[in-house]
Amino acid sequence: MRTESSRIQGEIAISKYKKEGITEYEWVAEPSACDICAPLDGKRFKVKGADIGNPDHPLFPMHPNCRCAIVPVPMDREEYNAWLDHIDQGGTTEKWERQKKRSLGEKRQAEKLRRKAEKGGIVNTLSKADSVVIPDAKFSEYAVTPDKQPDKAKAFKQALGYDLTNYKSLIDQIYKNVKRYSSIEKGNKGWGMTYEVIVDIKGPNGKTAKVLTAWIDDKNNGEMRLTTVHID
Predict the structure, then answer these.
(1) Cα–Cα distances in angstroms (integers) from residue 20 to residues 44, 81, 85, 226, in the given order
(2) Quick count: other Cβ atoms within 10 Å of Cβ 92?
(3) Which structural domain range is residue 193 located in?
(4) pTM of the entire structure?
């Protein structure tokens, strides 16, 4: 069943690429990929001619129970995986595109407000910014853990140089920087108001990148707690 589902997803992906004029795709090998798939990880191929069994334009599944995938160039892997989840849950490509445009619009508006506020010397900082709670497990078991979140971990490593060996420095930077940037309310689903704060972080590799942090003002214990973090 998994193999057949994978085959269908592969065909959907290639059909979508052709429809949108995407000419290349990148192979994404699962963390425990076999000797057949592992060497393909990160390699790019032409969409034209992509088919199962074609060594020059390989398409998953390469074998029974293959869990590898492909991503369009230049779409990143995280976005593609989210799209596949959306399709698996009964969504449509049209609905996904509408959601993506709405999300992009919200991001642009948030960035515009942030720049305007900071230019005027006024920053709508996160409430309780001086006492935020950042669970270690959000990093050690999630954001920079290749086995759990390969795309997020790769993004942190490439953009800033953070991984499991030095993520505590990243936590320290978030503690110090979250109070310097604007917060955007994202709604209350019953457990407390949620917020988004995009901060500039300088990594040990000398590069600077924007990091999106999400928070919840937990109504049960009063904590302003980090819920999600990733390269923006």
Answers:
(1) 18, 18, 19, 37
(2) 10
(3) 123-231
(4) 0.51
